Amino acid sequence: MSDTPSPTMNDLYTRLGAEMMPWGPPLPDGSVIEVAESFAGVDDNGQSIAAGGGFEAEYAAIRQRVGVLHLPQRAILQLTGADVKDYLHRLCTQEINKLEGGQTTRAFQLDEKGQIAADLVVHHGDESTWLEIDVFDLPWVSDLLEARLFAEDVTIEDWTAQRTVLWLLGPSAVRLLAAVAADDHEENVTRMGAAPGTHHVIDLPMNGGAVARCTAYRWDLGGVLGVRVAVPSEHALEAYGALLVKAGYEIGVEVDESFAQRRRDSMRGRPVGWSAFNTVRIEEGVPRYHIDFGRNSLPAEVPGDWGIDGAVSFTKGCYLGQEVVARMKSLGHPKKMLVGLKVTDRDPEAALELPGIAGAQVLEPGEKEKIIGGVTSSTASPLRGQAGIGMAVVRWGRHQPGTKVMVPSGGRLIEAEVVELGTLTS
């Protein structure tokens, strides 16, 4: 038996010339999650990768082809037992009791104050139910589930180490998964691609005759077609590599006419990192938990399908934090709201600046420049000619589309306008 350690995803990142960045604070065990910010287009020996790389190529892949994004920050809890549906139904904001086997939905897990303690993806199957969450919410959600478990027939297991989540993003996402799936599972891929809100078992052939039995589900990023694949972790590295190969991304090959023809004939996909993904995310107006809203947010403060409209049912019975949600809906409104921001400054140079970095103040125009909110995300939008866009939490009454605000950028204040989240590039 060889003493050589098995290669890891980070080893492949090194070969791909990935520029890494930490994701959040250290975990309770002291470890730090790292994500790829971008892929520089050179390998670990400084040699150019034939398919190239960098932000522009990754952004173009998501918009026009397909990008493969690794999500090491996702955690999975598996729940089994006869009472799982009713148990979860009484805890989270969504209609879990109505789910059939093979259905997937979003939900919030609230605390006693009605604040969002976790953003959940609930995968209900015939034999088990998965909760997909941010890894930093895993301790709190696990403790809550255990504390609320009495005589119910429910078993809770942490499956985070057993599954690795990959996200295929772009027009060719379904086609790419079909290309790597076993021949007798291509129909499953087709059904999955045509049915958002469902998840399907997809087998991926591995070397040596092994099979990686994966769970795949349609998960778009706003208007960008997306497929998430939960791969058994022992096969994650090989599956990731197989996806890149089928996408037409080659490493260590001679750049010649033969390569150019192969690349033209392929899906012309590539690995993508956080930087390109985040720009597309903001352009699509998709807020992210722990970035644009978080532990102190109320569901009513997050509008649209990625917030209260898509994650909260107003027809179900009691659940943890339900009183606050119902009272907010029937009697009033939140004190603040998540909105989109477009830079509208007439100065051509200012128009290309970001509407502040995360944490920057949003100010009311005028002599007093009263603070009315804070920026949560921002980017230069290729779809708007590199003009600045972003998201911000602002006071109620300043959240209406068309409201003019000022934000600090480049050492000065620039003008921006409040817009709905889904209209940041229109």
Distance between the termini: 59 Å
Q: Within the largest sheet, what's the order of strands?
A: 10-11-12-9-3-13
How much of the sequence is in beta strands?
Answer: 25-35%
What is the residue-mean pLDDT, rounded to a whole number?
Answer: 92
DSSP helix count?
12
Broad structural category:
alpha+beta
Rg over C-alpha atoms, rounded to the nearest angstrom: 22 Å
Basic shape: globular
| Residues in helix, % | 10-25%
> Uncertain segments of ≥5 residues (pLDDT<50)?
none
- What about the largest sheet? 6 strands, mixed
Keywords: Transit peptide
InterPro entries: GcvT/YgfZ/DmdA (IPR028896), GcvT/YgfZ_C (IPR029043), GcvT_C (IPR013977), GCVT_N (IPR006222), TrmE/GcvT-like (IPR027266), YgfZ/GCV_T_CS (IPR017703)
Organism: Algisphaera agarilytica
Protein name: Folate-binding protein YgfZ
